[in-house]
Amino acid sequence: xxxxxSSLKKxxxxxxxIKIKIVPREGNEEYLEDYKIDDKPKIPTFVFxxxxxxILGAFIEIAQIIKEIVTRGNQVDIIVAKRKYRKGEFTNxxxxxxLEIIS
Length: 103
Fold this sequence. Notes:
This is Thioredoxin. It holds the Pfam family Thioredoxin_9. There is one protein chain. This protein has 103 residues and is mainly alpha-helical. The protein has a single domain, classed as Glutaredoxin (3-Layer(aba) Sandwich), CATH 3.40.30.10. Helix content is 49%, strand content 11%. It has five helices and two strands; from the N terminus they run H-H-E-E-H-H-H. Helix 1 packs across helix 5. The two termini are 23 Å apart. 13% of the residues are buried.
């Protein structure tokens, strides 16, 4: 999760009007119901809201590009992509996904 959290922190550092609050999953499960995958909460789940707490969107677990690779179903591609993702090689894609949500 460190790469995704650091991506979000970098966005906040560059734009001081973006505020971040991290809340634990425990005690907030009811708010995560709409963001479960296969009826399970995923970590991390970032829910983005405007100043009036209207939900803009959510980033759930992995970048969209990885979800697309998984959907194609080629096991070798999935393993390679997930390894690279965990090493931080898709950080730009994570930032892109987050910016699309908040823009």
